[in-house]
Amino acid sequence: MTWNRNTIDRRRFLRGTGTALAVPLFGSLVSPLARGEQPRPNPKRLACFYFPDGVPMPLPEDPAYQDWAWFPHGSGRDFTFSKCMEPLEPVKNELTVLSGFSHPKSRSVHGHNNADQFLTAALTGGGDREYENTISLDQVYAKHVGDQTRLASLVMSTDGGTGTARGTHTISFDHRGRPIPAEHRPKQIFDRLFVKSDVDSARRLALSRSALDEMLDDANRMRQSLSTADQRSLEEYLESVRQAEVKVAKAKRWLDAPLPSVDGDQLNLELSTDEPREYLQTMFDLIFLAFKTDSTRVATYQIGRENGVGRSDHLARAVGFNLAHQLSHETKNPDGWKNFGIYCRFLNEEFGRLIGKLKATPEPAGTGTMLDNTLLLFGSASSAFHLSRNYPIILAGGRQMGFQQGQYLNHAGLNFQGGPWLGEREPWQDEAKGEDLPLSNLYATMLERLGVPTKSFADSTGMIDGLIS
């Protein structure tokens, strides 16, 4: 029998959700003019990257300060990179480094608790607080733009899954603050983007014509006999059903769309962190391919989890060290800042490589380069040893969205905390030397330029001056 997607009832989808939604967009690679359509505006993309354990923060009087401090020397457009940041020199005019930003609700929390709130600004911190999170920046944008591509967002990490509360393996959280599982296997990511794993998706969508309608009728009858708490649980469940229905409608649109033609032979898809540099490059390349084929316009990648637990801690072996987290504890040792800086330099090399690749690629069926239409957020939720202030942040790309790059927005000045940990009080336990700005101000600025109809995000207090033309 031939299955016509136009005859598929949107309420027949729950049995076939995964495979039907795991097929990427191809239509954007065909010129709109060739189809007799009006030219579409350039796509706007967002990718967010998180690295754990902070960055080298030697004090100005330390001999290592000049060479291995993560933050640049200078400010505005008059700044220089240290050896730690040197790999970003070729793309210096395509990025802005920011200092003096953090999330207010997390400034007195141990840095290893912070990855969960990096993109949410929520009060997830330590102590006896009940864990509660909110929607992440990427998912706010995915809600706005996700229906325009096959995949609403691509969620990746080196460790995979969700991890634990305050020990997350994902930086993406849905509208209820629930963690979205991240994928860590390059082959599974590639297959999800470019391999149609189920030729029977239409049949699955068409099965059980009345099953869901009957379930909803039963739920409405059941509601009358439920307690208030159980009614809330039922509403949450029905909300997930409504979201599934939206996905059904979307799946019907993409069901017959052909797949992008991508040469997977150029990628080693069987990699693990046993080959750390090539693994990191492949993960970045997968995001590049997902954006180039317009399979999604939203991606997150948690490069490593906090506290040095998991396979991501092995990435330091790319530059001759054993465990990445250990380097942040050993800065008091001879060459400690240098060793930590060499590892951060490795991360900067690969991030700079992605920036350069996007810059060198013309926008498919659009204007400018891919980088001009893509925002890349790269950072951590701690700076000095376990310090939840003055996050190290880089924002790259977005020129056609109005971003002025080639700057160091130094709001911290010299009022920063740093130095090696000597085994006593940690910097996060000390009184702050300066007042950070809410990092949510950056996120609100990004969302506004991405076209989301909002002037705020989480606890933002305004937009960032000097970042937009």
CATH topology call of the largest domain: Alkaline Phosphatase, subunit A
- The helix/strand series, from N terminus to C terminus, equals HEHEEEEHEEEHHHHHEHHEEEEH
Number of domains in the coordinates?
A: 2
Helix share, percent: 25-40%
Poorly predicted tracts of residues = 1-35, 201-212, 250-255
The strand order across the widest sheet is 6-9-1-10-11-4-12
Summarize the biggest pleated sheet.
7 strands, mixed
Please state the average pLDDT score. 83
User: How far apart lie the N and C ends?
Assistant: 57 Å
Number of helices: 11
Q: If you had to describe this structure to a student in words, what would you say it looks like?
A:
- The chain has helices at 17-21, 65-68, 137-145, 186-194, 201-206, 211-223, 228-254, 276-292, 324-329, 336-359, 440-450, and strands spanning 45-50, 73-75, 78-80, 95-99, 101-102, 154-157, 163-164, 167-168, 298-302, 374-379, 393-397, 407-410, 437-438.
- It is 28% helix and 10% strand.
- It folds into two domains: 1-40 and 197-258, no CATH class; 46-196 and 259-450, Alkaline Phosphatase, subunit A.
- 47% of the residues are buried.
- It contains eleven helices and 13 strands.
- With 469 residues, the chain is α/β, with parallel strands linked by helices.
- Helix 4 runs parallel beside helix 8 and helix 8 (276-292) packs parallel to helix 10.
- Strand 7 and strand 8 form a beta hairpin.
- The strands form four sheets. It has a seven-stranded mixed β-sheet, with helices on both faces. A two-stranded antiparallel ribbon has the order 2-3. The protein has a two-stranded parallel ribbon with strand order 5-13.
